[in-house]
């Protein structure tokens, strides 16, 4: 059995440089994704004298923060969409099924975004 991969510990976060393979392992993606992010400017890099890309720990942390913020935005939008469907007359169960979510979890989400109807349909 193999041991789980742990992100490398950075001795000097501003000067440690990682290979594309190491960065790919940290993000759980392929090295081609790392190269694309570098081409798109999402992940800053340095070049070795041989022309290979190396990535600073600070650039990796910056991209991790951006990805986390994007995930938070996506979640907020999905919750607002669920509340909109509920406000249009969908039941909690219907909204939960639409979002592949349990009834209880969807009820808690909707309580944060709207006033829930009682059993006879009034608020």
From TrEMBL:
GO molecular function: DNA binding
Protein name: Helix-turn-helix domain-containing protein
Residue ranges constituting the Helix-turn-helix domain according to the UniProt record: 17-65, 80-122
InterPro entries the UniProt entry points to: DNA-bd_dom_put_sf, HTH_17, HTH_58_Actinobacteria-type, SinI_DNA-bd
CDD domains: HTH_MerR-trunc
């Amino acid at each position: 059995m193999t041991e789980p991969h742990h992100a490398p510990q950075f001795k000097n976060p501003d000067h440690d440089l990682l290979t594309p393979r190491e960065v790919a392992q940290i993000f759980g993606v392929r090295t081609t994704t790392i190269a694309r992010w570098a081409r798109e400017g999402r992940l800053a890099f340095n070049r070795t004298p041989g022309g290979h890309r190396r990535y600073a720990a600070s650039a990796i942390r910056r991209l991790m923060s951006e990805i986390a913020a994007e995930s938070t935005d996506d979640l907020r939008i999905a919750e607002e969409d669920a509340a909109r469907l509920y406000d249009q007359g969908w039941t909690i169960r219907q909204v939960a099924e639409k979002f592949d979510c349990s009834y209880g979890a969807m009820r808690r989400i909707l309580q944060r975004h709207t006033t829930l109807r009682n059993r006879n349909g009034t608020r």
